[in-house]
Specification:
Length: 324
């Protein structure tokens, strides 16, 4: 709860300054956000994403060996089998690999299924014959056709679009014109930077990535709403005080709550990342990025935009009075 003193004759509560002046780093933070967002947008537009088989289509074969095997040997195996464009990725230690093969397509669905089954049979049989000493074990085989991949990609993007649309409607009903732009911009800021990191470093984008991005949007919005509610409470409590100081006090008031929420969430995410594997690890990595960026944006993106909107509104009213 905010600390107050006795109400002075003017009917206003005296406001104690917050322990931390968050806006001391306001300009560097704004420059950092703009630079990161521009890099993300430019790289996404130029390079695009490295889509997983969920969206691009293809076949994934997860193989585990009883002994350590060099990744070069597995790549040479795929080359010898006639799959020059196959990619090989080590999972964890050097005895488990993920082999990705391009999708195959026939003139009919039946022919496509036959080609796909033949390719899977050729790879699995070849692994058993080429790595007899190492003892190859097929852990998982996933296949997605090119048409299904395009459909999943389209549906995934539509899910993100409709989610953002519903959130925008909620924000429009929840806040007025002074608070809504900051909350809306935060959603795009966090999503664009996270996806930009995936584009810059060529991380794989799949269904789990989109699920994590939607989770990030909800997490960031919740943190921003808590901050905005405290700002509105302090505006009523400390009437007549500079709005920037009121916002800084609000950030100090919710700081402990923000840090506790972010740290506990990160602990759970780190547990999933280091203990789990496969798609859960990718989901945890994306979510961890979002928690860090979302916490930063609620302080150094959303709140400064509220202050800017307040100044713009005050200047607009001043001009109206001057022209009256």
């Amino acid at each position: 709860m905010a600390k107050t003193t006795n109400t002075p004759p003017g009917g206003k509560n005296k406001m104690e300054p917050g322990k931390y002046n968050f806006f001391k780093l306001g300009v560097p933070a704004a420059i950092l956000s703009v630079v990161l967002a521009l890099i993300a947008v430019m790289d996404i537009a130029r390079e695009g994403f490295d889509y997983g088989i969920d969206f691009a289509g293809g076949t994934e074969v997860q193989v585990q060996f009883d002994q350590s095997v060099e990744a070069g040997r597995v790549r040479q195996f795929t080359h010898d089998m006639g799959y020059d464009n196959a990619s090989v990725q080590a999972i964890g230690e050097e005895n488990e690999f993920l082999i990705r093969l391009e999708s195959v397509a026939g003139t009919t669905d039946k022919e496509t299924n036959e080609l796909l089954n033949a390719m899977i049979g050729k790879i699995t049989a070849g692994l058993g014959q080429s790595f007899t000493t190492e003892g190859a074990t097929i852990r998982r085989v996933d296949s997605v056709g090119p048409q299904i991949g395009e459909e999943l990609k389209r549906n995934g993007l539509l899910a993100v679009f409709y989610s953002l649309l519903m959130i925008l409607i909620y924000i429009g009903l929840r806040f007025d014109y002074k608070y809504a732009p900051g909350a809306v911009f935060c959603l795009f800021h966090d999503s664009v930077i996270v996806m930009g990191i995936f584009a810059v470093f060529d991380f794989e984008v799949n269904v789990q990535t989109l699920a994590a991005v939607l989770t990030i949007i909800g997490y960031s919005l919740n943190d921003t709403i808590v901050t905005f509610d405290r700002i509105r409470e302090n505006v009523l409590l400390y009437r007549g005080q500079p709005f920037k100081d009121v916002c800084n006090r609000a950030l100090n008031d919710v700081l402990s709550r923000t840090l506790l929420t972010s740290i506990t969430t990160l602990l759970a995410v780190m547990a999933m990342y280091f203990i789990a594997g496969g798609v859960i690890k990718d989901f945890a990595f994306t979510l961890g990025l979002g928690v860090i960026i979302g916490t930063y944006s609620s302080i150094y993106v959303a709140t400064p935009l509220v202050i800017f909107a307040d100044r713009f509104t005050a200047e607009h009213k001043r001009l109206e009075i001057a022209n009256a």
